[in-house]
Design a protein that fits this description.
Blueprint lengths: L8 H22 L5 E7 L7 E7 L5 E3 L3 H9 L1
Antiparallel strand pairs: 1-2, 2-3
C-alpha cells in the first residue's frame, strides 16, 4: 500500500490558480461587455509582448482591435 503525499505548496497554488481561472472564465462568458477601453495587454498569457486592444471595463476580457484612427488617437494621449 502506498500513501499519497499531501500537496506541496506549488501543487496547492496551481490548484488554486485553476479554480480562479475557471471562475474568471465564467464571469467573462456571462458579461455583456457594456463598456470598453483601449489598453495595453499581453499578446498571450505566456507572452511578454504587449499589444493595444479593446478590453471590457467590467470583466477585463480582450474584446477587439482598435482601427488605425482609434490607435493613433490613443497613442497621442
Amino acid at each position: 500500500m502506498t500513501l499519497k503525499k499531501p500537496f506541496n505548496k506549488v501543487e496547492g497554488l496551481l490548484s488554486t490558480r485553476k479554480e480562479i481561472e475557471k471562475e474568471i472564465e465564467g464571469i467573462q462568458k456571462s458579461c455583456q461587455h457594456p463598456t470598453k477601453s483601449i489598453k495595453n495587454v499581453r499578446e498571450r498569457l505566456d507572452s511578454q509582448i504587449m499589444v493595444i486592444r479593446y478590453v471590457c471595463d467590467e470583466c477585463s476580457l480582450t474584446i477587439g482591435i482598435p482601427n488605425n484612427n482609434e490607435l493613433q488617437k490613443y497613442l497621442k494621449q
